[in-house]
Amino acid sequence: MHEYSIAYDLYATARSAAHEHHAIKVKKISVDVGRMAMVNPEQVVFLFDTIKEDDPLFQYAVLECHEISPETRCACGYSGNEIYLCPKCGALPELVKGREIVVTNVEIEVED
Ligand SMILES: [Zn+2]
Question: Is residue 80 part of a domain?
Fold first, then answer.
């Protein structure tokens, strides 16, 4: 299950960030999800909620997915959002952005 391993990775990343900063609570995890990553963000959020359930550190944690539009570049100099066909020369453009799943921010609460 593709989405499950992604959700688990996001959880593990957030958890190690939280431990590193001696967090008492994880509040929000922001994630960029490229449209070309072929994942369903809603399903990732759902699975994430299932995984974090037994972790008190994550009791109030919210996973926020931001969808990222694909960006491509072609050898002829074209750059834009066409993913299958370069509008200038007809070649297959190279995907430079839009396949990534990256944690951009982990919001935590620390003890005073
Ligand atoms: Zn081209």
Answer: no
d(CA 71, CA 94): 9
In a domain, residue 88? The reply is no
Q: What is the pLDDT of residues 59-77, one digit of tens each?
A: 999 999 999 999 999 999 9
What pTM, to 2 d.p., does this model score?
0.86
Looking at the structure of the chain, the number of domains it has is 1
CA of 68 from ligand 1 middle (Å) equals 22
The verdict on residue 89 lying in a domain is no
The boundaries of the domain holding residue 17 are 2-70+98-110
SS (H, E, C) 58-84: HCCCEEEEEEECCEEECCCCCEECCCC
CA of 101 to the centre of ligand 1 (A): 27
pLDDT, tens digit (0-9, with 9 covering 90-100), for 73-104: 999 999 999 999 999 999 999 999 999 999 99
